[in-house]
């Protein structure tokens, strides 16, 4: 895994040619892992979240908490929605008014004749982002209720606020109860379930960790120059990733971490991520 991490890091030193090569490596890696893991356990493409812009011959599967705001903004702008409509409606709900869900056969045909891409993120960083943005911020009424319900499940007589440990245990319990990861909320459901990447055809895999460089090359490859507005709609986190790793993952036990990793293990493997740093963080005893 060290050689993979180094390969990702040095990409910025060699410009567009290297970015193109590393995308080929990411796609090849995805194919190899999919073959080894029997297509991530899926037999059918999941089309529920894919967006297909026929005008720009572009297919995108949004991985929630992995740079979706910019791309929902662009797809909805291309659809003719106003700034007010975009800012005051659920992104996916608004997009579906113009981009209907395509059935599996149609979606595969769309991918074959369009430029298709996905944006991914380190699975545990995505969890941290989901926890902070959905359950801690209290800026969304629905997730405020979810946050309170999770807290009360583990602290029935308490009056505090949800902790990351509560969140992790909730995910573990939810998966054990359902005997599946399919029912998890879209903001922390594994990418393997949301986009069934082993059954899709992608031209480009963008990683949030190298987002700016990847997007620049992808826009050229997809011939989208001058058509994409890159913007930051969400609150920019002030604390470095390393600080957040220690802050949250030191709250959970070794057993919880092992169970959490097993839930997202396929995502780690599909996109070449490592959890080594997280396992090295001192854990809670009980």
TrEMBL record:
Location(s) in or outside the cell: Golgi apparatus membrane
NAD recorded as keyword: no
Enzyme type, top EC level: transferase
InterPro entries in the record: Carb_sulfotrans_8-10 (IPR018011), Sulfotransferase (IPR005331)
Enzyme Commission number: 2.8.2.-
Pfam families with a match to the protein in the record: Sulfotransfer_2
Entry's Gene Ontology molecular function annotations: sulfotransferase activity
Keyword Oxidoreductase part of the UniProt annotation: no
GO cellular component terms attached to this protein's record: Golgi membrane
BP terms from Gene Ontology: carbohydrate biosynthetic process
Keyword tags: Carbohydrate metabolism, Glycoprotein, Golgi apparatus, Membrane, Signal-anchor, Transferase, Transmembrane, Transmembrane helix
Membrane topology: Single-pass type II membrane protein
Predominant location: Golgi
Similarity field: Belongs to the sulfotransferase 2 family.
The protein's name in its UniProt record: Carbohydrate sulfotransferase
């Amino acid at each position: 895994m060290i050689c993979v991490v180094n390969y990702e890091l040095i990409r910025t030193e060699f410009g567009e040619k290297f970015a193109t090569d590393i995308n080929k490596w990411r796609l090849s890696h995805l194919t190899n892992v999919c073959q080894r893991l029997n297509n991530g356990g899926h037999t059918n493409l999941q089309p529920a979240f894919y967006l297909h812009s026929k005008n720009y011959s572009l297919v995108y599967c949004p991985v929630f908490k992995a740079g979706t705001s910019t791309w929902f903004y662009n797809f909805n702008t291309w659809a003719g929605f106003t700034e007010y409509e975009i800012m005051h409606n659920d992104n996916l709900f608004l997009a579906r008014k113009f981009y209907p869900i395509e059935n599996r056969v149609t979606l595969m045909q769309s991918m074959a004749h369009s430029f298709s891409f996905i944006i991914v993120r380190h699975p545990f960083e995505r969890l941290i982002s989901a926890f902070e943005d959905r359950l801690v911020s209290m800026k969304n009424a629905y997730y405020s209720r979810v946050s309170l319900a999770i807290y009360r499940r583990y602290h029935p007589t308490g009056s505090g606020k949800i902790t990351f440990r509560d969140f992790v245990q909730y995910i573990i319990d939810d998966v054990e109860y359902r005997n599946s990861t399919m029912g998890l909320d879209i903001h922390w459901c594994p990418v393997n379930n949301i986009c069934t990447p082993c059954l899709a055809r992608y031209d480009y895999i963008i990683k949030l960790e190298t987002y700016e460089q990847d997007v620049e090359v992808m826009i050229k490859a997809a011939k989208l120059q001058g058509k994409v507005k890159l913007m930051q709609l969400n609150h920019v986190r002030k604390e470095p990733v390393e600080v957040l790793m220690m802050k949250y993952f030191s709250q959970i036990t070794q057993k919880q971490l092992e169970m959490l990793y097993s839930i997202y293990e396929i995502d780690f493997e599909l996109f070449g991520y490592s959890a080594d740093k997280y396992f090295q963080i001192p854990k809670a005893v009980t």
